[in-house]
Each structure stands twice: as structure tokens, then as C-alpha cells.
């Protein structure tokens, strides 16, 4: 079991196609000075396996309707996930905890509204976000791949080149 064999703290599952989600991942990567967070796209096999081990419904994963944050062995979703991530970023972002004064149903109402319109407002990628070589150690699926064929992207600005490589990553 993945959940029992690894210490998964501060693992953020995000929609890899969503531009808003990818901007958020970039925002966190730039501000996470202590490399506290790890990431996995909700479209990845690792997300399906790990989240189902924690009891998260697979249909919710397929709908990509919310961010999921695995924090100290507890899954947080929607506004709870966002507020916990901001709090764990430390510094000025800890002030986000003040939003817990609002009831969850109200916070999630606003979260759902933004989530419903995120593709229209921010756009959608044709392919899932792939980490740069500097970021790859922070993305769980890239650390756990072993002897599988994957489609890699080599991106320089907006020019994308596709290449099929066989890789062997070790934990």
C-alpha cells in the first residue's frame, strides 16, 4: 500500500490541465522556501492509487472538481485544502486562517463557483503539466515511475516538442 509505505505530508493533488491550478502550483513552488510541498496531478495513476487508499471517491477524482491536500495523513478538499496550503506556506499566508470564521458551506460555495468557471476564465491546457528538471523531485509521480514508457515534454517558452522515453527512476 502506498499510503502505509510512505510518509506523505503536504502532498497537493491538482488538475494538471487547469491553468489556474498550474498557476497556483507555480505560486507555491516559488514561495515554498523549505520545500515542504509535493505535488501530483489528479490525472496521474499515483493520485488514483493514493487517494483511493485514503478513502477518497474515484468518481470525484475523475470529475476533477476540487483540489485535494494530504496533510499529516488527513485529506482536505476545496476551501479547507486551500486555506491549509496557504497556512502551511508560512509567513503572511498564515493570515488566511481568518477565513475559517466563515462556515464551510459558505467557503465551499465560493470555491465551487470559481472551480466551475476556471476553464472559461483561465483556460485549459491540452496536456497535463509536466515539471521542469528542477521541479521534478517535488512531483510524486516523477519520483515513483519505474521502467515505464511515458510521454515527456521538452518545453522552451511555448514551443513544445514530444519525445517518447523509457525511464528508470528510483525512490
Describe the structure.
There is one protein chain. With 171 residues, this protein is α+β, with helices and mostly antiparallel strands. 39% of the residues lie in helices and 22% in strands. Strands 2-1-3-4 form a four-stranded mixed sheet, with helices on both faces. Strands 5-6 form a two-stranded antiparallel ribbon. Helix 2 (19-31) links the parallel strand 1 and strand 2. It is globular, with a radius of gyration of 16 Å. It starts with a helix and ends with a strand.
Helix percent band: 25-40%
The outline comes out as globular
Strand neighbour order, sheet with most strands:
2-1-3-4
Our Rg estimate from Cα atoms comes to 16 Å
Terminal residue distance: 15 Å
| Overall pLDDT | 76
Number of helices: 7
Which segments are poorly predicted (pLDDT under 50) over 5 or more consecutive residues?
A: 1-7, 144-171
Run of helices and strands: HEHEHHEEHHHEE
What fraction of residues sit in β-strands? 15-25%
The strand count comes to: 6
> What structural class should be given to the helix and strand makeup?
alpha+beta
Largest sheet: 4 strands, mixed
Write the topology of this structure:
Layout: H1 2-5, E1 11-14, H2 19-31, E2 38-41, H3 45-53, H4 58-63, E3 68-71, E4 74-77, H5 78-88, H6 104-122, H7 140-144, E5 146-156, E6 159-168
Structural descriptors:
single chain, about 170 residues, alpha+beta, four-stranded mixed sheet, two-stranded antiparallel sheet, 7 helices, about 40% helix, globular, disordered N terminus, disordered C terminus
In short:
The protein is α+β, with helices and mostly antiparallel strands. The chain has helices at residues 2-5, 19-31, 45-53, 58-63, 78-88, 104-122, 140-144; strands spanning 11-14, 38-41, 68-71, 74-77, 146-156, 159-168.
Amino acid at each position: 500500500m502506498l499510503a502505509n509505505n510512505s510518509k506523505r505530508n503536504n502532498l497537493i493533488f491538482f488538475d494538471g490541465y487547469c491553468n489556474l491550478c498550474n498557476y497556483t502550483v507555480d505560486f507555491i513552488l516559488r514561495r515554498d522556501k523549505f520545500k515542504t510541498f509535493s505535488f501530483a496531478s489528479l490525472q496521474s495513476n499515483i493520485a488514483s492509487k493514493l487517494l483511493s487508499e485514503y478513502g477518497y471517491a474515484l468518481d470525484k477524482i475523475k470529475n476533477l472538481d476540487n483540489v485535494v491536500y494530504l496533510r499529516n495523513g488527513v485529506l482536505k478538499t476545496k476551501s479547507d485544502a486551500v486555506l491549509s496550503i496557504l497556512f502551511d506556506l508560512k509567513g503572511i499566508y498564515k493570515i488566511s486562517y481568518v477565513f475559517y470564521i466563515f462556515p464551510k458551506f459558505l467557503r465551499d460555495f465560493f470555491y465551487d463557483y470559481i472551480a466551475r468557471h476556471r476553464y472559461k476564465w483561465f483556460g485549459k491546457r491540452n496536456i497535463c503539466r509536466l515539471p521542469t528538471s528542477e521541479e521534478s523531485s517535488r512531483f510524486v509521480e516523477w519520483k515513483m515511475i519505474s521502467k515505464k514508457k511515458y510521454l515527456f515534454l521538452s518545453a522552451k517558452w511555448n514551443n513544445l516538442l514530444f519525445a517518447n522515453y523509457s525511464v528508470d527512476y528510483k525512490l
